[in-house]
Amino acid sequence: MAEGYNGILSLIKDAMNSVTLYSASGDFTTIGNVHDYERIQNTEGTIYKFKDANEAVVPEWTITRPACAETLDEQIAWRNHTFRIRGYYPVNDAAESEKKFQRLIDDLMRHFRYRDDLANEIWLSGPMSLTRFEPLVVMLDEQLCHYCELELPIQEKVTDD
Question: Going by DSSP bridges, is the β-strand pair 60-73/76-90 parallel, antiparallel, or unpaired?
């Protein structure tokens, strides 16, 4: 049975949390923190707020759906979702942290490349795409961060159950 929006978010989050990190240098032990919604709060001193001030910023990811089109094919409804994954990684050494973050993005894209489906009636309808990378653009928890956006196309067979 199809999962719908919230179910798909949960499946993407689970898949991201199971990413195998291939980076040869061993830069990361996990993908980082994955949030299945946009964790944006308008707080004093920063727009983006993930943690308390005493906690370190690690790779942070948010998942949202900016587009969805529904079609009918011989009385079967299909939803073609576009999910946007935003990534943030703190700038420590501008050249080195950018390279580390780019490798982490490659690991994430590689993980989804070889998946056909997320569940019984939810399929990946194309590879993940990096659509935006900004080396120095976002203040996150009062720290300058690299920022990226990835898109993940998903097709869902819609049931009325």
Answer: antiparallel
**92, two tokens:** 């420590």
Residue 127, domain CATH:
3.30.2000.30
Q: State how many domains the chain has.
A: 1
Which helix (H) or strand (E) segment holds residue 15: the answer is helix 4-17
Q: What is the mean pLDDT of each run of 10 residues along the chain (161 residues)?
A: 80 91 71 80 54 63 94 90 93 81 92 85 90 80 85 89 56
Q: Which domain holds residue 95?
A: 4-158
Collect all residues with Cβ–Cβ distance below 8 Å to 16 and sequence separation of at least 6.
31, 34, 61, 63, 85, 108, 111
Whole-model pTM above 0.90?
no
- Give the C-alpha separation, 13 to 47, whole Å: 23
